[in-house]
Design a protein that fits this description.
The chain is an alpha/beta fold. The protein has one domain: Ribonuclease E inhibitor RraA/RraA-like (Glucose Oxidase, domain 1), CATH 3.50.30.40. 30% of the residues lie in helices and 24% in strands. The strands form two sheets. Strands 1, 2, 3, 4, 5, 6, 9 and 10 form an eight-stranded mixed β-sheet that branches. Helix 3 links the parallel strand 2 and strand 3. The longest helix is centred in the last third of the chain and has 23 residues. It starts with 14 loop residues before the first helix and ends in a 10-residue tail after the last helix. Keywords: Magnesium, Metal-binding. It comes from Hydrogenophaga pseudoflava (Pseudomonas carboxydoflava). One of its GO terms (molecular function) is metal ion binding.
Length: 227
């Protein structure tokens, strides 16, 4: 039996895991998860300082239509991140100040959309986390159905409802809900390893220990040669 177009509830990554994971950069999660999960770079923070972390509340809309986003705002829970498959459309904005104010008032953690927004200066003043493919002053229609709480494709990544979403000035990474707990120790280790390497570089050890072997493997250097 097929699911209804609107799935009102689903398992979410737990709040304590969100709090732990939010300490790390999206880049860390990409590195430790096989360099997977990063949305296409067209989906960027509206302002570089903006950060978001939380479970995905997934929405699929027709290009230029935001009917289902209004429904999603009515159904999403505090802490959720609206993750919207807007088909990459930039001909009109899917959300603006009014909807973003409602999201913030309801305690939603932020918005990630493969589509455009408007009222960007006001959203900047609100300091509400928004990630989009840019801006457009044209308003949307409110006529077409879509889906809520289903897996979506956004920025080349499949996102299931309840997955962990994290974004900063670099972009957005999505981690499967079931995978996240096992990645947290790896994230901590990665951060410590990078800090150690940066300290070594500052002390003058700038050479990468792996470089020569990789150049030989790539056929750039012959066995026994060095730079």
């Amino acid at each position: 039996m097929s699911q209804p177009d609107i799935v009102k509830d689903f398992p979410r990554v737990a709040p304590d895991l969100v709090a732990q994971a939010a300490r790390f950069q999206p880049a860390i999660f990409s590195d430790i998860n096989g360099r997977r999960g990063a949305l296409h770079g067209r989906i960027q923070a509206l302002r570089p300082r903006m950060k978001v972390a939380g479970p995905a509340f997934t929405v699929e809309v027709r290009p230029g239509d935001n009917l289902m986003i209004h429904a999603a705002i009515a159904l999403a829970k505090p802490g959720d991140v609206l993750v919207i498959d807007g088909k990459g459309d930039q001909t009109s904005a899917l959300m603006g100040t009014i909807m973003m104010t409602a999201c913030r008032q309801l305690g939603l953690a932020g918005v990630v959309m493969d589509g455009a927004v408007r009222d960007s200066l006001e959203i900047d003043e609100m300091d509400y986390p928004v990630f989009s493919v840019g801006t457009n002053p044209n308003g949307p229609t409110k006529n077409n159905g879509g889906r809520i709480g289903h897996p979506i494709s956004i920025g080349g990544v499949t996102v299931h409802p309840g997955d962990f979403v994290i974004g900063d000035g670099d972009g957005v990474v999505v981690v499967e809900r079931e995978v996240l707990p096992g990645l947290l120790p790896l994230a901590e280790h990665k951060v410590q390893a990078e800090a150690k390497r940066i300290a070594q570089i500052k002390e003058g050890n700038t050479s990468a220990s792996w470089l020569t072997a990789s150049l030989i493997a790539a056929g750039v250097l012959k066995q026994g040669e060095t730079l």
